[in-house]
Specification:
Number of helices of chain B: 14
Strand order of the largest sheet of chain B: 1-2
CATH architecture of the largest domain in chain A: Orthogonal Bundle
Number of domains of chain B: 1
Largest sheet of chain A: 2 strands, antiparallel
CATH class of chain B: Mainly Alpha
Number of strands of chain B: 2
CATH topology of the largest domain in chain A: ABC transporter involved in vitamin B12 uptake, BtuC
Order of helices and strands of chain B: HHHHHHEEHHHHHHHH
Distance between the termini of chain A: 68 Å
Strand content of chain B: under 5%
Shape of chain A: globular
Oligomer: heterodimer
Largest interface: A-B, 60 and 61 residues
CATH topology of chain B: ABC transporter involved in vitamin B12 uptake, BtuC
Structural class of chain A: mainly alpha
Shape of chain B: globular
Strand order of the largest sheet of chain A: 1-2
Helix content of chain A: over 70%
CATH class of the largest domain in chain A: Mainly Alpha
Radius of gyration of chain B: 21 Å
Chain lengths: 578, 354
């Protein structure tokens, strides 16, 4: 082997094969757990492309792209393309092999998803010979993936953005249909969409539009941003304020635009934002991993239910929704306080498991016959009246949206103020190191108890609203999964970051409700997300600045003089100004 | 400032003291009432204790996995319950096939050994994969990070097996040989209970021998004492950690099969959650990181959980006390964590964690 330049080095084919095998395992996994078959129910481009196929072939394409990304620095483009091809073929093989074996032995008794339906899907309806076609397709896609990495940036960005944009719009075409149909009419929508998926022509058109826009933005975007930046200061504030006003206006009119179903989704997202912000105080700020957060939610809901129902439909309860809501919050806070006391001395994992125990004890007690006379046992409590304000009845999700919006606004304001307050900084100190925090004069007991109590208040608020919105409460609504859900959303969004929690709630709660096919795999994806996030981006997608800095301290610590105020501080230390 | 601190500590200690006293009072009053009322015969109490021991030995096997991993990594493998589930669920299909071919009842001992082997292999490989993919990259990360990863891995595994094997509940086939009863000194015992108990005991003794007497076991103990020093003595830390996960996983898989023999019902993807939490309780009860402790903790928890609802709760006049069996286990968990986090036998925790 002669080394002429760096780029002609031999490709390490074993690595390519291993990489392809990995992509193949991913494809096999998603097929075997039934994701492919289930996602193929969602058609993106009518008759041409379903989400299942994106999953099946996307892995081959992405594998080729990532492989090429690794190789492109060192090797000739021809070699990289060949590597992509081999990688793609490898990616198709494991699933093909399993499906061939499945022809000989019936595996459905054990692996429920290795079924003829999967074969049909994978072989593109061609039966056994279609499997060869499948491997060929993955190979070509691997080649394309590698090819797209090799092509220059100018072409790659618009094409990839166009493809991704088209897939996303196809994914949410049902959503667009629901929003736009009342405005444009069924006829017009029918021109673009066919039964909630894009018509092929629409897809091509969308791809063209998005790709051109990206290309134009790539060329001209800098100018536009510059022209905004050079505007006079007054114009800039005008722009930001009008932007904000528009945002508030949109927020207030959302239920009217979105209709019943989407308002319901939005309500759920709102409730999870409330809980997420609450748990964020314990986990994100104070570093107290609380796995029993659902207990607060349950207590809020049950207090609301017991106080407002009065035996049978239309019965008068003890008090109205508005009087009961603060009591729900206060009860949740009291329970949060009581739960906090015994766990004060615990740290990290023990704390997490003890709180998990509290959550489960609460659920089992609520479910038991022992407390059934008060809490209704397994039947739960029915006929919770709807809240009323000056004769306006909050009947459905569209009206409840406003209550939840108000709750979220309060919660966001409180979290935002707490983040920058003295107590917020105490919590963060506690999170970093309890012993150091204590020796700095922070009262650990008070700080921890406060974190649990305030965090519980948000959960109680969410629970109270939830009970009134649903009109019934069942013990089954308050499982550990809720706690895990809330935990996942703050971790994916970014621990300790308010915008992160909001984004996390939209992504982890909103998306699965829009895409019903996801619902079954929701927890699978959450679990995978938690692992992936912890491995690659522990600070979350929208991190708070402190959190990001501390988790990546070893990688990109700015030199001391770049931290704002650091030089002044150093000067103060050195000269003893304080 | 010191005065205020003192006040706070007093308040919390007071609360905890009241908590502790009222728990003890409830236990005493409940037991006294039940015993005085004489609702249950000696035979019934004996049955409760023996079934508790059988269940407890299963908890103990799972608890060993927690304790071994905690020993070498100082982390709680939250997904260990799922490792148990993986073995139990996979072995179910083998058991089903064996039962249909008739092999299970012709040659029960060999069949059960095959089941144990399959379950141990599956659980072991899941545990090793878990370590390799989820935990190894995070060994130096801040404390909360591996814990959150473990929670994520736990749900990922649960729903992976749900996807692979389906979401329905299955039941292990009955083994004819284990169906009858034995007469022991005037008491009747279902055969399966002592069999499970003794089998678990043999495995635990085997593990004790492995950890205490073999070279690998010694290396394991060295790693759990001090990783750096062990590495300097030429021990391959990564290898030892993998072995630890594998051994813990194998025990959990075996526990899965015994659980299937003892309680055939309820094989499904969520079957790992409760045994996992309870085994964790057992591990903490015995002092986490302590091998004999986990065994004792498991047996104690099994018996307490089996006798507790009838003995304590019924005496307190709680209706349908058996519904609260899991609540008893969780209360036990919280009580142990609050009042004796170092466990009954363990003293090592005090220096390592606190």
């Amino acid at each position: 082997m002669q080394i002429q330049s760096v780029r002609t080095e031999q490709v390490d084919w074993r690595q390519v094969l291993r990489f392809g095998g990995l992509a193949g395992v991913v494809i096999l996994y998603t097929s075997a757990v039934g994701m492919v078959a289930s996602f193929s129910q969602r058609s993106l481009v009518a008759g041409w492309l379903s989400l299942g196929e994106v999953l099946l072939f996307g892995a081959a394409f992405a594998g080729g792209y990532i492989l090429a990304h690794r190789l492109v620095q060192l090797h000739r483009p021809g070699h990289v393309l060949l590597a992509g091809l081999v990688n793609g073929a490898m990616a198709g093989l494991p699933l093909t092999a399993v499906l061939l074996v499945a022809q000989l032995i019936d595996m459905r008794r054990i692996f429920v998803n290795i079924s003829p339906a999967l074969l049909e899907l994978v072989s593109l309806g061609q039966g056994l010979p279609g499997l060869g076609l499948f491997v060929l397709t993955t190979a070509v896609l691997g080649l394309l993936g590698a090819g797209s990495r090799v092509t220059p940036d100018k072409w790659r960005r618009p094409v990839l953005t166009g493809l991704i944009g088209m897939v996303l719009i196809g994914l949410f075409s049902e959503l667009f249909n629901q929003i736009l149909r009342p405005i444009l009419g069924r006829q017009t929508m029918g021109l673009f969409l066919l039964a909630n998926s894009l018509r092929p022509l629409t897809a091509v058109g969308l791809f063209a539009v998005i790709a051109t826009t990206t290309a134009v933005w790539q060329a001209k975007g800098q100018n536009l941003r510059d022209s905004v930046r050079t505007l006079p200061a007054t114009r800039q504030t005008q722009l930001t304020w009008s932007g904000r006003a528009l945002g508030v206006l949109i927020l207030l009119s959302l239920p009217m635009i979105l209709g019943l179903y989407l308002s319901e989704v939005l309500d759920n997202v709102g409730l999870f934002i409330l809980m997420g912000l609450g748990l964020n105080i314990a986990v994100g700020l104070a570093g107290l991993l609380d796995l029993g957060y659902v207990a607060n939610y349950a207590i809020g809901a049950y207090v609301m239910a017991t106080l407002t129902t009065g035996g049978g439909p239309g019965g008068e309860g003890l008090m109205s929704f508005w009087a009961a809501l603060p009591i729900s919050v206060i009860c949740a806070m009291i329970i949060g306080f009581v739960f906090a006391l015994p766990v004060l001395r615990m740290r990290g994992d023990y704390l997490a498991i003890a709180t998990l125990g509290f959550g489960e004890i609460t659920r089992i007690l609520v479910l038991s016959d022992w407390l059934a006379p008060i809490l209704g046992g397994a039947q739960g409590i029915l006929f919770i009246p709807k809240p009323e304000l000056f004769g306006f009845v909050f009947r459905g999700p569209e009206q409840f949206y406003y209550i939840i919006l108000a709750g979220c606004a309060v919660a966001i304001f409180v979290s935002w103020r707490l983040n920058n307050s003295r107590i917020g900084r105490k919590w963060m100190a506690l999170r970093e190191d309890e012993d150091v925090a204590a020796s700095m004069g922070i009262n650990l007991v008070k700080t921890k108890v406060l974190a649990f109590t305030i965090s519980a208040a948000f959960g109680g608020l969410a629970g109270g609203i939830f009970a009134a919105k649903l009109g019934t409460v069942f013990p089954q609504s308050f499982t550990l999964l809720i706690s895990i859900n809330v935990l996942s959303l703050i971790i994916v969004g970014g621990m300790g970051s308010v915008p992160g929690v909001i984004m996390g709630a939209f992504v982890l709660v909103g998306l699965p409700e829009l895409l019903r096919e996801f619902a079954e795999y929701r927890l699978l994806l959450y679990g995978a997300l938690l692992v992936v996030m912890m491995r690659s981006r522990p600070e979350g997608l929208w991190p708070s600045e402190t959190r990001r800095r501390e988790l990546h301290s070893d990688e990109d610590e700015p030199p001391l003089d770049e931290i704002p105020g650091a030089t002044e501080f150093n000067v103060e230390i050195e000269t003893g100004v304080r | 400032m010191p005065k205020r601190l003192l006040e706070n500590i007093n308040f919390v200690s007071l609360f905890l003291a009241i908590f502790r006293i009222s728990i003890i009072a409830l236990i005493v009053i409940g037991s006294f009432n039940t015993l005085r009322a004489g609702t249950y015969t000696g035979q019934q109490w004996f049955n409760l204790v023996v079934s508790g021991l059988a269940q407890g030995s299963i908890y103990a096997l799972i608890a060993l996995g927690y304790t071994l991993v905690y020993g070498v990594l100082l982390m709680i493998n939250f997904a260990h319950g799922e490792v148990f589930m993986a073995g139990a669920f996979t072995a179910f299909f083998v058991a089903d096939a064996l039962a249909r071919s008739g092999f299970l009842n012709q040659n029960p001992i060999l069949a059960i050994l095959i089941l144990l082997l399959v379950a141990a292999l599956v659980s072991s490989s899941i545990a090793v994969l878990l370590e390799r993919i989820a935990y190894r990259p995070l060994r130096t990360a801040p404390r909360l990070v591996p814990l959150i990863t473990a929670i994520g891995a736990s749900f990922f595994l649960q729903y992976t097996f749900r996807g692979l094997y389906g979401s329905g509940f299955r039941a292990y086939p009955q083994v004819e040989m284990l169906r009858g009863t034995w007469q022991v000194g005037g008491f009747t015992v279902p055969i399966v209970q002592p069999v499970v108990f003794i089998a678990a005991l043999i495995m635990m003794l085997g593990l004790y021998y492995f950890v205490d007497r073999t070279r690998t076991g010694r290396a394991m103990r060295a790693v759990s004492e001090d990783k750096q020093a062990a590495a300097l003595m030429g021990i391959d830390i990564d290898k030892i950690i993998v072995i630890t996960f594998a051994v813990g996983g194998a025990l959990a898989g075996a526990a899965g099969v015994m659980n299937g023999l003892y309680r055939p019902q309820g094989v499904s993807f969520i079957m790992g959650f409760f045994p996992g939490i309870k085994a964790f309780t057992a591990a903490v009860l015995g002092g986490i990181g302590n091998v004999p402790g986990a065994m004792l903790g498991g047996l104690f928890l099994g018996v307490f959980e089996s006798v507790g609802p009838n003995l304590i709760l019924e005496g307190l006049g709680v209706p349908a006390a058996n519904q609260l069996k899991d609540a008893i286990a969780f209360t036990m968990l919280v009580l142990v964590l609050v009042f004796r986090p170092q466990g009954i036998l363990g003293e090592r925790l005090a220096e390592k964690k606190a």
